[in-house]
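Q: Could you write out the predicted structure for this multi-component system? I'm mainly interested in how the pieces pack against one another.
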Amino acid sequence: GNSVTQMEGPVTLSEEAFLTINCTYTATGYPSLFWYVQYPGEGLQLLLKATKADDKGSNKGFEATYRKETTSFHLEKGSVQVSDSAVYFCALSDLSTNAGKSTFGDGTTLTVKP
Amino acid sequence: DTAVSQTPKYLVTQMGNDKSIKCEQNLGHDTMYWYKQDSKKFLKIMFSYNNKELIINETVPNRFSPKSPDKAHLNLHINSLELGDSAVYFCASSQPGQGGSPLHFGNGTRLTVT
């Protein structure tokens, strides 16, 4: 079956530090990959996505590249801000299996300190 | 103009009671979901409906019964509530069949069973 493994947290960084949250996946088909962000007290919202190998998703200074050879989709940001403090979820969706059900990683909590 | 709205936001009740959570989406999506998020932020899919038809039913106790009167609504009824049901429940929608169609989440219902 499909699975997503993401870096365990929590992660604590100082403002303007470089962020990497690792994500690797296992899928039987050709999945689309996503990063979602959850701010305190809110639902998850899409941060970025990539639908095929070598695609790069980007939004709000965050980037992730779909690497089929390493089955990875690592999230990066060059300079984090306090407002980036949130829980980040890596996910995949595979239309060829399970009616396109999304599979989520366990989430990584990021805290950015001033 | 909220895309996915669920009510109530908070629900505090005693063991053994029956409660319902309502969800509505105005995105025109065909598929709706219920997810459960525990205290460690782990997300677990419970149900998925496509155009009012149940397509995903994970191993959820039959005390949980989803109902979809139309494709814009998916409600969740819970009978005989137990302490372990305490969690945040998220409704979501998507338009599968399109490559890379992300989930759109509501802001969650925090259920506390005492």
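A: Regarding packing and overall arrangement: Chain A touches chain B through 26 residues (CB under 8 Å).
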